[in-house]
Amino acid sequence: MSGADEIAALDFASVTPEEFARLVKGLSAKEISEIAEDSTLRARVLKEVFGRMERQFKPDVAGSLEALIRWKVTGQGTTPEAVYETKITGGTCTVTEGRSDAEPRVTLVMGDADFLKLVSGNSSPVTMFMLRKVKIVGDVALAAGLTRYFDIPKA
C-alpha cells in the first residue's frame, strides 16, 4: 500500500497529530504528489489539517495577538489553489476556507508537499523561507513565529 493509499484509508478522527506527522514524514515526493493530484483526498487532508489548527492553538502563548493569516496552498497541474484563513483574536483561533475581503497581516504561499511538511513538524519554516519553498507576503516576523502559537507534533 502506498503512502497516498494509507492517507486515503485513514479515519482522520482517530489519528493523533503525532501519528499524522509520522505518516507525512514517511511519504515520498511522489506519494505527496499523488495526494495533491487526487482532488477529493487533497480536500480531505487540507480540511482535517486546518480543522485541527483550532484545537492545537495555544491561547496562553498567543496572548493579545490579533492577526489574520491567509494560507495559499498552490495546486499542481489541474489542481486549483486552496485558500484558508486563520484568524487569531481575543485568545481564540478560527479557521475558514476561502478568501475573505479582510486584509491579512501575513499571507503564506507554498505547494502541497511543503505545506504538509510544515504543519506536521517535518520542516522548519525558517529553512523553508530561506530555500524559497514558502513565499511570505506581509509581516515576516509574525510568519517566522507562527509555529509557537500551535502545538505542532514531532514525528
Automatic annotation (TrEMBL):
Ranges in a coiled coil: none
Ranges for domain SCP2: 59-150
Signal peptide annotation: none
Superkingdom of source: Bacteria
Name of the protein in its database record: SCP2 sterol-binding domain-containing protein
Organism: Streptomyces kunmingensis
